[in-house]
Amino acid sequence: MRMLSFTCILIFSLLTTLSPPLIQATSFNQTLPHPDPEAVALQVERRILASTVSKAQQSCGTGNPIDDCWKCDPNWSNNRQRLAECGIGFGQAAAGGKGGQIYVVTDSSDHDVANPTPGTLRHAVIQTEPLWIIFSANMQIKLKHELIVNSHKTIDGRGANIYITGGGCITLQYVSNVIIHNIHVYNCVPTGNTNIRSSPTHVGERGKSDGDGITIFGSRNIWIDHCALSHCTDGLIDVTMGSTAITISNNYFSHHDEVMLMGHDDHYMPDKGMQVTIAFNHFGQGLIQRMPRCRHGYFHVVNNDFTEWKMYAIGGSASPTINSQGNRYMAPSDPSAKEVTKRVDTEEGDWAGWNWRTDGDVLENGAYFVPSGQGLSNQYVKAASVEPKSAAMIDQLTSTAGVLGGPRDNGDRISYGGGTTTGASSSGGSSGGEDFFGMIFGNAAPPSTTNSSNIFLSILIILVVYITTSDGALLSLPLLLL
Questions:
Q1: pLDDT for 272 beyond 90
Q2: Has residue 16 got a pLDDT over 80?
Q3: Residue 186: closest CA among 133, 276, 107, 253
Q4: What are the CA-CA distances from residue 220 to residues 54, 59, 410 (Å)?
Q5: pLDDT higher for 74 or 392?
Q6: DSSP secondary structure letter of residue 107
Q7: For residue 348, which of 324, 372, 320, 369 has the smallest C-alpha distance?
Q8: What distances in angstroms separate CA 127 from CA 69, 134, 154, 175, 466, one per listed residue?
Q9: Distance between terminal CA atoms of the chain?
Q10: Catalytic residue at 290?
């Protein structure tokens, strides 16, 4: 008992001296999910219906409520932040950098991850104030290590062809209000075991990354829209550790095995609050599984086009709720892979009560969806319900999935091993410093690196060694850190 008390006191002392990015972890894990996820799903259906009706009244309308919200304005580039008002679903409150200044990335390099060069994407995303980040020209940004994005940021690639590849790639950890729009992400590989700056005042040592395209870890109010993702070492998009209030829309996924993971593991209870909308995406050539693979939370999968899988499309464990509406599922020719759904490592007696629903889906080439739980009932969420838009409109609703204004997918530069330079063009470096119509051109150098994080890490390592030699008390450490 005395040993345990000493351990708790020591951990508490360490927590009171943590740097701000680590302190944020406790607050985001306490984020409450939406109390009525069915109401959010119903709102999405109504937005789709309203956009489809208004399509006949405006020449630019597509029926896609996200695109119609901003693309119908011919002068959208003069009001880029209008995009923040166009989200749907659980991530619709993601404000990104709305209200902040425009930061123009003028330098495609990533030379120093501990002291990023002003004018680079890395320098932009670590700032603490809200920023709407755009690009001065077409760029390939080959990252040396994972790109750690701070809260209240929009990465807006409209008007340029932006390719992000290399080490990492994009990490959203214990942050909120981030929008990533119109970016190619491909050939991301594991890197790490180095110091990386995550804010103007904090540099910390990072372990080895998994090589995900986009990692969403303990974060909320996140929107990923109109991106093309392929060929990463681990997942294309991974959402874990209590993340919630997320929309993944209008993206083009291709050439990958484990596409999207939703949930840390079957025993991580904070993921019960995970709520994700997956809408208008194209799941294309060369995909195998996990579109997505879900744990615990609520997942609204609506009006997506699943054109290829090798094993299954949607999977899950630990009793997630899956609400599949108005999707098109095209089964592969393999007769053993016709099922859309897969309950992972679970016996039927255990998953029979899981709430998996199919509503208005079109199942082609022998595809079949196995519902369960409330999904077996015709009465499921039918009161005041709006019928999901027919999957017959999938071609129209997903016609612009992927990156706008260039190749929709990453087919022009597909390779393994960390990135290519085919067709890339990038601007040179810029000293910055000019303020032009509210646009920031990177005029402030980050402060010098401090060794406070290294001191903390050394103390923590000593603590872990001490605890593991004291009757296996290590299990108390993650509980205290949450």
A1: yes
A2: no
A3: 253
A4: 31, 35, 28
A5: 74
A6: B
A7: 372
A8: 28, 15, 12, 12, 37
A9: 22
A10: yes
Q: How many CA atoms lie within 13 A of 179 on its CB side?
A: 31
Asked if residues 47 and 65 have their Cβ atoms less than 8 Å apart, the reply is yes
The single-letter code of the amino acid at 145 is H
Q: Strand pairing partners for 80? A: none
How far is Cα 127 from Cα 106, in angstroms, rounded to an integer? 16
Sign of the CA dihedral with 368 first, then 372, 376, and 380 last? negative
pLDDT tens for each residue of 415-424:
444 333 233 3
Percentage of the chain modeled with pLDDT above 90: 68
Total number of residues shown for the chain: 482
Instruction: Kindly name the residue from 80, 206, 220, 290 that is annotated as catalytic.
Output: 290
Using the Cα atoms of residue 67, residue 69, residue 71 and residue 77 in order, give the sign of their dihedral: negative
pLDDT of residue 430: 33
Q: Name which of 120-124, 175-179, 231-235, 438-442 the model is least confident about.
A: 438-442
The amino acid occupying position 352 is A
pLDDT bracket for residue 51 (50, 70, 90): confident
Beta strands in 112-243 (DSSP E): 131-135, 139-143, 147-148, 153-156, 162-167, 170-173, 176-181, 184-189, 194-199, 202-206, 214-217, 220-225, 228-230, 237-240
Nearest CA to 235 out of 159, 183, 291 is that of 291
Q: How confident is residue 413, by pLDDT bands cut at 50, 70 and 90?
A: confident
